[in-house]
Write a structure and sequence with these properties.
The protein folds into 3 domains: 42 residues; 176 residues, Rossmann fold (3-Layer(aba) Sandwich); 202 residues, CoaB-like (Rossmann fold, 3-Layer(aba) Sandwich). With 484 residues, the chain is α/β, with parallel strands linked by helices. The protein binds flavin mononucleotide.
């Protein structure tokens, strides 16, 4: 499912949303939901609660017409023979769910028409710096910034010279000077133009300025009998380069690592219909499994009974009781990292009734409890196959840090994630968590450090924990740490 970043919407849309949500006393996010529901049907209120800001009501200037884009490019087409390939580039970018708004220089219009670019991009095409329809609200600035990337294809010798020298006497060069977005150039010109000392100087300057170049390739020129370096890269190559800049590959710091995680409660049977349980939802362990998988790890999740979908790309082993959980954990070894987030019942009924226990006049049947296996301690104390990093969770309702520190020592694990689960916190079954990471520092004589994190969603806790793990086992961070 695509996600919408409000921050990236057009300014006038954001203003409209802010005003409308303030008027209706809703969050901006909730207001967007209401608007979408209205559009689909069951309109709750008129679409214009007050007169919309001028840009929203004005002619089709710079307005996005399609649904929510995942990424957007301003494509500047320069005046070279390769401009025809840029029409294909529009298609290639759109295939990748990248929205394209085209700017054609005056010279470009000698090679391709604004109509063709508009038909392929499904957007208005921009050609003129002094266009009153666009410029009533500084359209060139918005074309420069209201996108994720600017692509110039073909980047002619002339356009590159203007860029290198900071000219801004037409729409394309003004956008390139006014942008704070990454710029990708696909140069195309005759080999003599490409090798000319002036072009060489300009290319060096542009690279120093942080502009990214794709190509040019070597091959035959449009001019009969000429060949050499100067052919514009193929549309598909430019689209791939643009996509790499727009969606850089996510780092996979846990690639090659096997992570074993437990999650959820356990159910300890009393008889065939009754069991002892706890309020754990499994959300935290599942979020950690998803975050570790996203960081490239092979993840095995041993889960007690929960009401959650299995995370994608994770091997999930479903169990009921503590003894089954231990069995599956042991069967899943070896692992590089083991994270025991499950709320395992400490006790179980000594002899589970084979039939449903009946009410008798003698009162409640005595329930004799025996201790369950301690999964965290069992795995932490293994001599063979002990995962190099063993992390336990301590759910406490009082003396959180002290209890967690003594648990760390008692169980023999390396880290403890301690959280306060007293009812007032809403952690059990809720979506947020306030945790403290307590770790034993092997390099500092086993010194124990306590790192307290602010209140976060369970997903954020998972991402942060995985980042710490990645740093610890590989020296690489799994994601930018949260400031706290
Ligand atoms: C038929 C023809 C083909 C051209 N091809 C190129 C080209 O491939 N690369 C280039 O840099 N200039 C080429 N030019 C020259 C540019 O069109 C010219 O320098 C123009 O001012 C560039 O405008 P721009 O800055 O809007 O791209 C060509 C000119 C003509 C007449």
């Amino acid at each position: 499912m695509a996600s919408l970043t409000i921050r990236k919407l057009d300014e006038h849309v954001k203003t409209y949303l802010r005003l409308r949500s303030a008027k209706n006393r809703r969050s901006v996010e909730e207001e967007v939901r209401v608007i979408l529901r209205e559009l689909i049907g069951g309109r709750e209120e008129p679409l214009t609660p007050f007169s919309a800001p001028p840009a929203a009501s004005a002619a089709p200037t710079l307005q996005r017409t399609s649904a929510l884009p995942e990424a957007s490019v301003t494509l500047i087409i320069g005046g070279g023979i390769a401009a025809y390939k840029s029409l294909d580039l529009i298609r290639r970018l759109k295939e990748r769910r990248i929205e394209v708004r085209c700017v054609l220089t005056k010279a470009a219009q000698q090679f391709v028409t604004p109509l063709a670019a508009s038909a392929l991009s499904h957007e208005r095409v921009y050609t003129d710096l002094f266009d009153p329809q666009s410029e009533f609200d500084a359209g060139h600035i918005r074309l420069a910034r209201d996108c994720d990337l600017i692509v110039v294809a073909p980047a002619t010798a002339d356009l590159m010279a203007k860029m290198a020298n900071g000219h801004a006497d037409d729409l394309a060069s003004a956008i390139l000077l006014a942008t704070n977005r990454k710029v990708l150039l696909a140069p195309a010109m005759n080999p003599l133009m490409w090798n000319n000392a002036a072009t060489r100087r300009n290319v060096t300057q542009l690279q120093r300025d942080g502009v990214v170049l794709i190509g040019p390739n070597s091959g035959e020129m449009a001019e009969a009998g000429e060949a050499g370096i100067g052919r514009m890269s193929e549309a598909i190559e430019i689209a791939t380069a643009a996509e790499r800049l727009l969606r850089p590959p996510v780092p996979k710091p846990l690639a090659g690592k096997r992570v074993l995680i437990t999650a959820g409660p356990t159910h300890e049977p009393i008889d065939p219909v009754r069991y002892i349980a706890n309020r754990s939802s499994g959300k935290q362990g599942f979020a950690i499994a998803a975050a570790a998988q996203a960081a490239g790890a092979e993840v095995i999740l041993v889960s007690g009974p929960v009401d959650l979908d299995d995370p994608q790309g994770v091997t999930v082993k479903h169990v009921e009781s503590a003894r089954q959980m231990l069995e599956q954990v042991q069967a899943s070894l070896p692992a590089d990292i083991a994270i025991f987030a499950a709320a395992v019942a400490d006790w179980r009924v000594a002899s589970e009734g084979e039939q449903k226990l009946k009410k008798t006049s003698a009162g409640m049947p005595p329930l004799q409890l025996v201790e369950n296996p301690d999964i965290l301690a069992t795995i932490s104390k293994l001599t063979d196959q002990r995962p190099p990093l063993v992390i336990g969770f301590a759910a406490e309702t009082e003396h959180l840090i002290d209890n967690a520190k003594s648990k760390l020592a008692r169980k023999g694990c390396d880290w403890i994630v301690a959280n306060d689960v007293s009812p007032a916190t809403g952690v059990m079954g809720g979506d947020r968590n306030t945790v403290h990471l307590i770790s034993k520092n092997a390099e500092k004589n086993g010194e124990i450090t306590v790192d307290s994190w602010p209140v976060m969603t369970k997903e954020q806790v998972a991402v942060e924990l995985v980042a710490h793990i990645a740093e610890s086992v590989t020296g690489k961070s799994g994601s930018p740490h949260l400031e706290h």
